[in-house]
Structure to design on (124 residues):
C-alpha cells in the first residue's frame, strides 16, 4: 500500500497462524519513533526460533504497520506531508495514511488493535 501524496511506501507485515488477530501500528506521529523500533524488535523476536515465538505465532496472527506516517518520520513532525494529524483523521479519512489503516483494519478484521505511541520531543 502506498501513500498517494508521497513516494515513500507504507509497509505492512503479517505473520502467525493463530485464531486471535492482532493489528499493531506505530509512528502515526512521525516524531514518535521509539515504538517503531520496539515493533521491529518484536517482529524480529517472532521471526526467531524461540519457544516464545512459536507459542505466540500458534496462538495469534499479527498484522503490523511499523511506520504509518513515513512523511512525518522523514520531517520528524507529528503531522503528515499534508499537515494533518492522523490521530484526528479516523472519521474523515481524508488522508491516504488513514485510508491505508482503515483498509487494513477492514480486510484483516482484528480482534485487538494497538495504536502504539511514545513520548516525543516537543520543539517550540
Amino acid at each position: 500500500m502506498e501513500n498517494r501524496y508521497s513516494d515513500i511506501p507504507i509497509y505492512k507485515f503479517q505473520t502467525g497462524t493463530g485464531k486471535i488477530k492482532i493489528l499493531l501500528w506505530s509512528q502515526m506521529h512521525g516524531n514518535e519513533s521509539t515504538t517503531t523500533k520496539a515493533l521491529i524488535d518484536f517482529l524480529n523476536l517472532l521471526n526467531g526460533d524461540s519457544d516464545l515465538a512459536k507459542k505466540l505465532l500458534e496462538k495469534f496472527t499479527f498484522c503490523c504497520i511499523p511506520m504509518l506516517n513515513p512523511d512525518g518520520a522523514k520531517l520528524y513532525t507529528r503531522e503528515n506531508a499534508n499537515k494533518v494529524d492522523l490521530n484526528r483523521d479516523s472519521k474523515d479519512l481524508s488522508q491516504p495514511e488513514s485510508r491505508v489503516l482503515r483498509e487494513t483494519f477492514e480486510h484483516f478484521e482484528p480482534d485487538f488493535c494497538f495504536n502504539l505511541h511514545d513520548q516525543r520531543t516537543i520543539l517550540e
User: Anything to note?
Assistant: The longest strand covers residues 20-26. The chain has a mean pLDDT of 91. The beta strands are 13-16, 20-26, 60-65, 112-116.
